[in-house]
Amino acid sequence: MAGGDDLKLLGAWPSPFVTRVKLALALKGLSYEDVEEDLYKKSELLLKSNPVHKKIPVLIHNGAPVCESMIILQYIDEVFASTGPSLLPADPYERAIARFWVAYVDDKLVAPWRQWLRGKTEEEKSEGKKQAFAAVGVLEGALRECSKGGGFFGGDGVGLVDVALGGVLSWMKVTEALSGDKIFDAAKTPLLAAWVERFIELDAAKAALPDVGRLLEFAKAREAAAAASKDEFND
Amino acid sequence: MAGEDELKLLGTWASPWVSRVKLALHLKGLSYEYVEQDLDNKSDLLLTSNPVHKKVPVLIHNGKPICESVVILEYIDEAYGTTGPSLLPTDPYERAIARFWVDYIDQKLVIPWKVAFTADGEEEKTEGIKQMLAVVQTLEGALKECSKGKPFFGGDSVGYVDIALGGLLAFLQGTEELCGTKPFDIANTPLLLAWVERFTALDAAKVALPDVTKLVEFAKTKRLRI
């Protein structure tokens, strides 16, 4: 890492968006200060660093804040281009494909999944679940195309799409435990199921993914407090 | 431009997302074939080019499709890095800031606008308008910061944020008639008002943006399907 590079990550351990950034930093071999925010009592630094959304993650690089998980990932990839592996390929078309699937993960999987988990009515939850499962089906095809025989969306190595999806893996396991449904089912989406097992074995994943047991307790406690919840993890 | 370089844009004349791509292509000085789509009767080309979303815009470059307006914009900037002006800044931090504001526009402006336009109840409509105006106010601040006194979000020349917001301009100009409120006014958003004047005067805008009157009529009859 270049001398004098100060990296500070404002985050919250349960957040899958923060996990994405931790994954990227770990993959790149970058040291950083991990600042745990209390989302019910946001720090001055967070409010000052992300005045528009007041959300985590925020990556502060030499005092300059970068917000939004996928923007942070591309920033890390560009600034630290000569450090560790690249998250995006060099070819513009392949970059466009990767960005397309990142947007798909966020819009079509993560957003409905959150509705499934946190929806206010059974109807909302059921619709979210249906859409999330449909997205998983589409992502199986995406993985087949993008991996070109390698083990990841990024091909032979981990790429931006892998990190975007990998960041939510602990939550997917928690959702499976809470609902009794298998999201990445080896019978229905064999490539994705294998990808999950491969991903969680990565050193970066072991360093960055929150412990599933701890996250499950957190999820249960939050569900129990749902009536009074201010929903601070709604990012 | 390299020989044999073929660009085809699948779009609909009213779509602000398509307008964004037209703006970028014009600003870069790139020739392309525009193919108007009938979204009630989707063409085979559209369905094979965008099987996932079946939406416009789709940019087809030498037979290879790229989908999603912001993905297309970044693609154009990267594939044609040495042609015409750059759309994104070269500095990684400034690029992150530009991406942040484009993401903000997409996440925060469009939904309240749609609510303001389509809401049946007064309360819902008022709430949509209120949220939309709050977002516009934030964008006024963004313009001040990003432009640093220069004409555009991109500084001296039109950039990524300008294009992302500019693509929506015909809708923004039609907002008073469609939603019952002016999005920009001299008291609250003087910089944005000046930016609108400047942007609509660009050659690229004249070619890429639909006629506001035509758009307003269309939006009213179709009740918004962009």
UniProtKB/TrEMBL annotation, chain A:
One GO molecular-function entry: glutathione transferase activity
PROSITE patterns to which the protein is assigned, alphabetical: GST_CTER, GST_NTER
Keyword Transferase appears in the UniProt entry: yes
Keyword Transferase (UniProt): yes
Enzymatic reactions: RX + glutathione = an S-substituted glutathione + a halide anion + H(+)
Domain named GST C-terminal: residues: 91-228
EC supergroup of this enzyme: transferase
This protein's GO CC annotations: cytoplasm
Enzyme Commission code(s) on record: 2.5.1.18
Entry's Gene Ontology BP terms: glutathione metabolic process
Family (UniProt): Belongs to the GST superfamily. Tau family.
UniProt protein name: glutathione transferase
Organism: Aegilops tauschii subsp. strangulata (Goatgrass)
From TrEMBL, chain B:
Record-annotated GST C-terminal domain positions: 91-223
Record-annotated GST N-terminal domain positions: 5-84
Alphabetical UniProt keywords: Transferase
Catalytic activity: RX + glutathione = an S-substituted glutathione + a halide anion + H(+)
CDD domains, per database record: GST_C_Tau, GST_N_Tau
Pfam family, one: GST_N
Top EC class, one word: transferase
Protein name: glutathione transferase
Lineage of the organism: Eukaryota, Viridiplantae, Streptophyta, Embryophyta, Tracheophyta
